[in-house]
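Q: A reviewer asked whether we had any structural model of the full assembly, not just the individual parts. We don't, so I'm hoping you can provide one. Inputs are below.
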Amino acid sequence: MDFTVILQAGIASGTVLLFATIGELFSERAGVLNLGVEGMMLIGAMSAFSTTIATGNPWLGVLVAMLFAGLISQIHAFIVITLQADQVVSGLSLTFLGAGISLVLGEGLSKAGTVALLPDFSIPLLTLIPIIGKIFFTNQSVLVYVGYLLVPLSWYYINRTRPGLHLRAVGEYPSAADALGINVFRMRYFYVFVGGMLAGLAGATISLAVSPGWFSELTTGGQGWIAIGLVIFAQWDPFRAAVGAYAFGALRRLILDIQGPLVLLGFANPFYYNPYLGFFLQMLPYLFTVVVLVIGSREAMRKRIGAPAALGNPYVRGERGK
Amino acid sequence: MTDSNKLPSGQTRIDSIEMRGITKRFPGVLASDHVDFDVKSGEVHALLGENGAGKSTLMKILYGMYHPDEGQILLNGKPVSIASPTDAINIGVGMIHQHFMLVPSLTVAENVALGLPSSRGPLTDLDRVSKRIVELANIYGLKIDPSAYVWQLSVGQQQRVEIIKALYRGAALLILDEPTAVLTPQEVDEFFVIMHQMVKDGYALIFISHKLHEVVEISNRVTVLRNGKKIGTRPTSETTKQDLANWMVGRDVDFAPDRGKVDIGEVRLKLENVCCGNDLGTPGLREVCLEIHSGEILGVAGVSGNGQRELADTIAGLRKTTSGRVYLEGRDVTGLAPGDLTDRMLSYIPEERMRDGMIKDFTVAENMILREHHKHQFSRSGFLKLKDISTHTDKLIAQFHVKTPSQETLAKNLSGGNIQKIVLAREISRNPRAIIAAQPTRGLDIGATEYVREQLLDQRKRGAAVMLISEDLDEILALSDRVAVIYEGRIMDILPRQNATRERLGLLMAGVHPEEKAPA
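A: Here is a predicted structure for the entire assembly that you could use as a starting point for your response.
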């Protein structure tokens, strides 16, 4: 087993989680929890693949995926921002809706043949750095590099710009923001849309780059849920989100690859001879997600890890500041 | 000449703002009924009234948050239209809300910059903002570090940030909505010094409060509203506290209810080195020792958030102690569930009466029996005795003067004062041995406050042990036999009432032992 190869593939697969996590992070920073990430990712994966098959242009596929997923997210936005309904229930339904739509529209798509994929390339000079060059900058998809840029840009946007300041205010104390003339409702719609677009991009990253093709709901395989867990793990910070996303991407690859060889570190590979151990390994990321969600849903814990104070609460004008 | 027209912040002063014949109707309510109100440069005009008298409505109209159905607003004699807070800010009106409009997780400078255009386009220009904050702060000696996070600041400091925020936006007239409600007496004094200076410099200030002694102390003129109508405007020097109170309520008010003499009995409630955590996982109570006797009211004074909530919750069995013991009538009740404590005749009047004191979507009758519904009196083998419950409720509604359309009305549709009366009726009518009353009059108007206080005194006379947790020093001093001061989860000291001066309590509330002050 060559660990640099595993890590290299892990970075690519982590990029999927990265986009979805950063998208959810924006939405939650504005105070809106969107549990529909999985559904939006399916929409993105399906529409990216299908558009690319129809037009032969993967870039158009990415664009359509982002717009379609963004559009779907606005259903959630309308329900929780304008109608002030429960964010958990609405988000869950969005998952089912997204899965349903993509399964119907994607019917037969898995047999539609191969598509033009997004280009892979290496970055000259940077590839020469020992180990790191191999893992991060050699033969990666263009979207992986987009991911590298997205992390610092998101951090800078949230922490150093005026719109970012407004974003934080809206998620922490919407009535204060409202009193200062910031349109809380418009801001929340916007960031839910951003979250949707990035989830769509995450879907497109799967079907056009990381594991090309359409395998119905197995395409995403629950990664949307892992992304929601990662937002909590990251404590709503883009850099920590990146660490988490790449670590999980690498873990996914490792779990797949560790079951291959007959001999592991000089011993008979238990994961090869006992497939049940493999299933157990595959369960780990989801187990982690459940644990993080349980911890993250405790009020006291949320305060301690710095969750946006208004997360999950609809903003009603004229109610006392809380 | 132009210079004299400027305020120290560089803003042009507002000579006068006049509201004429302001009328505002809400469905079913006339919130403001042809009210005239005006304020001039260089004065503090106090606006007094009970809850629902129309103070907030009037000020929200001035600040552009509501639109009046009738009437007009004149700025320096010329009509203006104020359609939104932005309009209000543009003509120089600023508002300090009762609940601070500050984002705790942002810095002072970030809070001030919120919603304003930046000289660097999409990027923030916090350095420039910080410089201007320091300039403005220096004019009034408000010490503020622009890079501090708001959550690190004391309540008094947060209020200064609010003032600076308004000045930064060019306010020449400030609406101060109950600004002293959250301050210690010392902070109130400091705040009044700032107000005096601002008035001298030519600002116009509107001071909303229901603390009469403060209104008498700080204002030049006072206007009283009742039920949406203006009762009158007078120079403050021509009125007294008692006049204003009677005006507000529309009848004679008894301010210092007769405490009477009650013989103190045995120890009913005792806390021994009680510690517990708070919601953030840091210590909430530290080694608290207290004793409350039968026939005694122990006041617990302190600035909000110093462990009062944890103290009440712990005794009521809603929060686990990490160490220490709680005794009720000599028996160890540490760690007992709230239901067991109820059966041992402990009553609890919680601070968040809408959340912890009742079930909003239950009827008045159902709320009346929340504590005792499982007793024979109200249920038999799982079935409620509806007739008995109804009789019981009728009796309590009459006895406690609850104003409700019927027993079947949902609690959430009643006013705050009536909701508190239901809680009181339920908790007191069982003749408890000990009562924990947490902020029992917060948010109530004078009439309801008076009533709640009388009830607590009656309980004391009956021989109950009462713990009164309050942030209102007047209330503590009016009712308590002894006063404990809580600071950062510690009981700083317990003073007999006659030794509990406002000044001494104020120092203790700020965490200073008067004896520790430099013996200069």
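A: Points you may want to mention in the reply: The two ends of chain A are 55 Å apart (CA to CA). The CA atoms of residues 20 and 37 of chain A lie 7 Å apart.
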